[in-house]
Amino acid sequence: MLTPSALHQLQAIVGETRVKTDADSLKTWGVDWTKHFTPAASAIVFPATTEEVQAIVRLANVEKFALVPSGGRTGLSAGAVAASGEVVISFDRMNKVLEFHAADRLVRVQAGVVTEQLQQYADEQDLYYPVDFASAGSSQIGGNIGTNAGGIKVIRYGMTRNWVLGLTVVTGKGDILRLNKGMIKNATGYDLRHLFIGAEGTLGFVTEAEIKLERKPRNLKVMVLGTPDFASVMNILSTFQAQLDLTAFEFFSELAVQCVTASGDVARPFPEATPFYALLEFEALSEAMEEQAMALFEHCVEQGWVVNGVMSQNETQLQNLWRLREDISETIAKYTPYKNDISVLISRVPAFIADIDAIVTENYPDFDVVWFGHIGDGNLHLNILKPADLSKDEFFAKCQVVNKQVFETVQKYDGSISAEHGVGMTKKPYLGYSRSPEEIAYLKAIKQVFDPNNVVNPGKIFDLDA
User: Fold this and answer.
1) Short-list 197, 128, 132, CA closest to 167
2) Does residue 460 lie within any of the structural domains?
3) What is the pTM of this model?
4) Mind telling me which residue stretches traverse the membrane in this protein (predicted)?
5) What are 86-105's pLDDT values in tens digits?
6) pLDDT tens digits along 148-174
7) Nearest Cα to 266, choosing from 257, 274, 279, 277?
């Protein structure tokens, strides 16, 4: 816990008004989007520079208090939850674009820059930052790096890791490291940058990043196709991917469409309801490519894989079709969904989803289940909706009963228990289903090198042995 002396020293580092201990602040900054754990932070600190973060980490090592990083607080695995009296470091003030190198298509930003802010900056340079997801308007780059965020464009552009060319970090020991310095080619030993990407702040805190940008996609088209079964979704993927370079391929269930359209803000793509829907996006760089997409659509209809479909004709329609997918998380939030974020090789998806669906149907016959995900990269989101007559604790307890079966199935298919949300605390008990004991031992050893006193985000991903 934080002593009065340590609190005074924190105030000396960042300024008295930049340390908050009131109940509202502790609740606001001590949580992410998960609802599994009760926030219990000791204080919230708002540094403005890498050097201030360094001073805070060094103080934590001396005074023996723990630190939790806080970005946009949109995480889904409790990786940014302060539940045990930790001091939260908020990166809200570290929100500046610092430098742009046009020839390198490289931008240097602070960790608190919001994803959408970076996307807009790239657009102003007539460039493109392709990592995109529903929380882009509030998630921060530091958090994206900490979880190696993916999103809706992974099939074409890859994960956050693909776009990070350099990092400035403060390790758990309080050292400042500048890793790779934005270079494309740098063959000088271990690339420590990649240890921090996906580490969820357990090795230290990212304070700045050099991010690679890309040319803007041109004349994007979106198609939403209704399918009679999940196997058809996979047939559509293979058919279109063989002929077109897709920038996205998503799927979602009919219940997801019902949840999104219930508000009245988004219309159905077409009158018929179908069990599943595929959303695909591509660049129509010529009229011939658009005609090719229509020919592939007609082929899928002839094969019985598609019942009906629509293709965007303008930017407004494109955005509205995307909302069918992007608004799912927001519209189901009121049902306190129990989420699983799992992935396998694309070739194993049909058998995998059949096994998972059987487990869910057997154990939750009366629960509504919303399926959606980035099927083009093998990532499935399973969302079980809480019935109104169950308390949150009762509901989560029921869902956790079958976690063992779900994750045993993930293990059977050599998959991941967390494709893009991180491990945090919610997935920590199940890490062994995706990582071997030997791997986990190496992870713990790496943690102890960078953070020997276990002060940065302790208790996330794994617990260190006593």
Assistant:
1) 197
2) no
3) 0.92
4) none
5) 999 999 999 999 999 999 99
6) 999 899 999 999 999 999 999 999 999
7) 257
| Domain containing residue 372: CATH number | 3.30.70.2740
Structural domain contains residue 441 = no
32 and 72 together in one domain? yes
Among 171, 197, 216, identify where a domain stops: 216
In order, the DSSP letters of 100-117 are EETTTTEEEEETT-BHHH
Domain that holds residue 319: 220-329
Total residue count of the chain as it appears in this document: 466
Q: Which residues of 111-128 are buried (b: 16+ CB within 10 A; e: fewer)?
A: bbbbbebbbebbeeeebb
- Show the tokens assigned to 96: 């500046």
CA distance 461 to 200: 8
CB 163 within 8 A of CB 134: no
φ/ψ (deg, to 5) at 198 = 90, 0
Distance between CA atoms of residues 139 and 116, nearest Å:
8
Phi-psi group of 247: left, alpha or beta (phi > 0 → left; psi -120 to 50 → alpha; rest → beta): alpha
The CATH number that applies at residue 231 is: 3.30.70.2190
